[in-house]
Amino acid sequence: MHSLITGTDWVPIKVHPKLFRLTCKLSAVILLSSDAARDDRWLEFEDEYINNALSYITALKSWPKFLRPLVYRHVKGYDILQQQWATGQNIIKKFLDQKKAQGWEPLQKPPSFFDYVSSQNKNLPVDDHVSMQITMFIAGVHTSAATATNALYDAAVDWDQMREIQKEVRETYRSCSGNFTRQGLNQMVKLDSFLKEVSRFSSPDLTTFARKSSSSITLSNGFRVPNGAKLEVATGAIYRDEQLYKDPLSFKALRFYEMRQGENAQTKHQWTSVSRRDLDWGYGRHACPGRYMADITVKLIMIELFLHYEFKSLPGQGRHPNIEFDGQVCSDP
Ligand code: HEM
Questions:
Q1: HSE of 227 in the Cβ direction (CA atoms, 13 Å)?
Q2: CA nearest to 151, candidates 33, 313, 49, 298
Q3: Which end of the chain is more exposed for a tag (fewer CB within 10 A), N or C?
Q4: Complete domains list, the chain, with CATH
Q5: Could you report the per-residue pLDDT of 42-75, keeping only the tens digit for each?
Q6: What is the 25 CA–ligand 1 centroid distance (Å)?
Q7: Which atom of ligand 1 is nearest to the CA of 203?
Q8: CA-CA distance, 114 to 31, in Å (whole number)?
Q9: pLDDT in tens, 4-34
C-alpha cells in the first residue's frame, strides 16, 4: 500500500506490523502501564506471545483430541512459549513490587486494568496477572489491530470516500485542540460509520455468539436444542444478506451514518451497538465487554493517521485480500 505524508511524496508501507505494534502500545497503557508501553521487552512479549500461541494452537490442533494431553509439551513452539512466559512474569513482578512499595496506590492516572486488579487482590499470584494480561491481549489486541488494518485497506481502495471522514476528524481535532474525550470521539459519527462498515465487510469472526448447551432446552418457538449442541450465528453471511443491507457487496463508508439519519435512529447503528442486527461483538450477556476499549483504541489510531496521511493501494492491486481460517478472517499476510 502507498501512504502520502501530508506535503511530501507517496511512500510504500507494510500496514499490519506497524498497526499491530501501535495497538500493542495503546493496549499496554490501558491494561498494564505507560511504562510497559515504552518497554520493548513487554511489547515483544505481547506481540510474539500471541503469534507464537496461535501457531502453537494450530500445530496442537493437528493432533487428534485424545492425544493432545500427551503430546502438548513436544509440539513445536511449546519451549519458546515457556521462555516468553518467564519474561512476562519478570516484568509483571517488577510492577507488583513497585505497587507494594507505594502502598498499592495506582501506578498511573487514570489507573490501568492491572492497577484495579492488583489493588483489589493484593495476594494474586504473578502467574494469574500474566494470564489475565495475555487473555486480554488475545481477546483484544489481534481483533483491534485486524480492524485497524482492514480499515486502512478499505480506505486505500477509494480515498475519495474517505475525504468526508478525514474532514470530520480534522474539524473535531481543531474544536477540542487535540484533547479527545469520550464525548469528542462520539461526535465523529462518520468515522464511527466507516469502522462499522469495515467490521461488516471483514468481520474478524465469520460466526459469533458461539455457545454450547449444557442441557436440553425448547425455545418459545418450539425449536429444540439438545444437550451438548453447539450453536453459532452466521454473522459473516448475515452481513452480506441483501434483504438486510442494500447493495451488501459494496463498501460504503457512510452506510451507517445515513441509516442514523432516519427517525429515532440517531443512537442506533453505532459501531459498539449490540443487537440482533449488530452482531460483530457477539450477542447477549456475553457480548464483548472490551468493545468500548476497542472503540477508543482503533479510533485514536485512525484519527492520528487521518490527520497526517492519505492512503492508496499499490497500482493495479485493488483491495488487499483477506483469508478465512477456522471461522476467522484476517488479511492475507
Ligand atoms: C475489534 C475488536 C474486538 C472484536 C471484534 C471483539 C469481538 C468479540 C466477540 C465476537 C466476542 C464473543 C461474544 C459472544 O460470545 O457473544 C468477544 C468476547 C470477549 N471479548 Fe472481545 N472483541 C474485540 C476487542 C476486545 C477487547 C479490546 C477486549 C479486552 C481487552 C475484549 C475482551 C473480550 C472478552 C473478555 C470476551 C469474553 C466475554 C464473555 O464471554 O463474557 N475484546 N469479543
A1: 3
A2: 298
A3: C
A4: 2-331 (1.10.630.10)
A5: 999 988 887 898 899 999 999 999 999 999 999 9
A6: 19
A7: 5
A8: 6
A9: 666 678 999 989 889 999 999 999 999 999 9
Buried b / exposed e over 304-319, threshold 16 CB at 10 Å, is: ebbeebbbbbeeeeee
Distance (angstroms) between ligand 1 centre and the Cα of 294 equals: 9
Whole-number Å distance, alpha carbon 83 to ligand 1 midpoint, is 27
**What is the distance between the alpha carbons of residues 116 and 2, in angstroms, rounded to a whole number?**
41
Question: What are the cell numbers at 289?
Answer: 465487554
Residue 137 alpha carbon, nearest atom of ligand 1:
30
Question: Shortest CA distance to 150 belongs to which of 270, 235, 47, 253?
Answer: 253
Grid cell in block for residue 85: 512466559
Ligand 1 pocket member 293 (CB < 6 A)? yes
**Cβ-based burial of 256 (10 A; exposed 0-12, middle 13-18, buried ≥19):** buried
One-letter identity of residue 5: I
- Over residues 141-183, the pLDDT tens digits come to 888 999 999 999 999 998 999 999 999 999 999 999 989 888 8
Strand, coil or helix: what is 322?
strand
Residue 313's nearest CA partner among 162, 141, 147 is: 162
pLDDT at 3 exceeding the cut of 80: no
pLDDT of the residue at 6: 60
| Structural contact between residues 283 and 208, judged by C-beta atoms closer than 8 angstroms | yes
| Summary count for the chain: helices (H), strands (E) | 13, 9
Cell digits of residue 199: 467490521
Contact 311, 1 (CB under 8 A): yes
Please give the average per-residue pLDDT across 232-242, as a whole number.
Answer: 92
- Quickly count: other Cβ atoms within 10 Å of residue 298's Cβ: 25
Q: What is the tens place of the pLDDT at every residue in 261-286? A: 988 888 899 999 999 889 989 988 99
